Amino acid sequence: MIKEAGFLARADLQTLLDRLHDLGYRVIGPVVDDAAILYRDIDRVEQLPLGYTDDQAPGSYRLSQVDTPRCFAWADGPHALKPFLFAPRETMWQVARDSDGRLAFSAVDPRPAKALAVVGVRACDLAALALQDRHFLDHVNDPYYEARRAGLFLVAVHCAYPADTCFCASTGDGPRATTGCDLALHELDDGFIVEAASPRGHAVCDGLSLRAIDDDQRRAANDALSEAAHRQFRRLPSTDLHNGLLARLDHPRWEQVASRCLACGSCTSVCPTCFCHAESDAPSLDGNDSEHLREWDSCFSAGHAQLHGFQVRPEIRQRYRQWLTHKLGSWHEQYGRSGCVGCGRCITWCPVGIDITAEANAICADTIEEAP
Known about the structure:
This protein is of the alpha+beta class. The protein has 13 helices and 16 strands. Helix content is 31%, strand content 24%. Strand 4 (52-57) and strand 5 (60-65) form a beta hairpin. The relative contact order is 0.17.
C-alpha cells in the first residue's frame, strides 16, 4: 500500500539520487537525448528534463521548453522499463571448441553488476511491468529476466501531463501510480509529495529531509491527476475485447488498416508489454566458437510466422490482425487482462500514425459496451 511519507523540497531532490547511489544502485532517469526523453544513467538532478514538455500526436513527437520549474512535465518517451529487463539482444549461452576439437558449452551469468533504480516511472509502465512479470516469471521462469528484476527499485512519478495519444484512464492503468513501485512522487512547483510503497521505499525515505504535507499541496496533487484523466479523449471500447475481435476476423477494417501499415514493427518495439523474440546462433569466422542469441522480434515481420518453409501470415492484414487480437483479446485467456496499458506509444511512434484506439473502435464499438 502506498502511504504518504512527506514533502521533499525541489532543492533537496539531489539527496534522493545520492541516497540511491549510496545504497549501491545504478540509477537511471529521464534525460533529453536525440530530441526525445530517454532513460539514461544519471547522478545529478541537472540531467533531468527541467522545463521540458512533449507534444505527441499520431506519428509525431516533439519536445519544447516551457516556463516551468518541473522536471516531469511530459507524458512518456519511447523508452519503457522493458529494455532493462528483457534485453533487446543478449547472449543466452556460448560454445567453443577446445584443443582436442571437442565442443564445450558455457552458460552466461545474467546477473547485472549492480541492482537498478529507475526514476520517473509512469503508472502505465508499472502496469506493463506487472504483465511482463506474469510472462517471464510465472509462465516461462526466465532466469535472465529474473536476475535483472531482482533488486529493481522503482521511483514512480504520477502523470499529470498526459499526451494527446495517452489513454491509460481507459485501460484503468493510470494516471496515478497505485502499485508496483517503491516510491511515488507527486510533482508540484516547489517540490514533491513523497509516498512510500515498500519497505525499501520507507528505508530510502529515512535518509531524506522530508517535512509535513499541507492540505493545499495534497489538494493540488489530486486535482492535477483528476484533470489529467479528464483530458484523455482516446478510449478503447472496452477493457475486454476478446469476443468482439474474434467474432470479426473478416471485418473490412483489417484490409483498410493494412493498406496503411508498413509492417515495420515500430509499435511492437516501443510497446512496453510485447515480448516476441527470435533466437539464432552467431558463429565466429574461424568456426571455433559461437554465441546463441535472443533478440526482440515482431509479429509484423515475415520471419516471425515462417514455419518449416510455410508463411502462416503472408499478408500485412493478417499480421496486424494477429497483433491487435492478441494484444486486446486473447491476452485475457493468458494473463487475465488486456495486453494494452494505454501508454499510446504505438500511436506516437507509428510512422504513418495508425491509432490502435481508432482501429479497435471501428471494429468493435458497434456492439461492445464502453468501459466504465
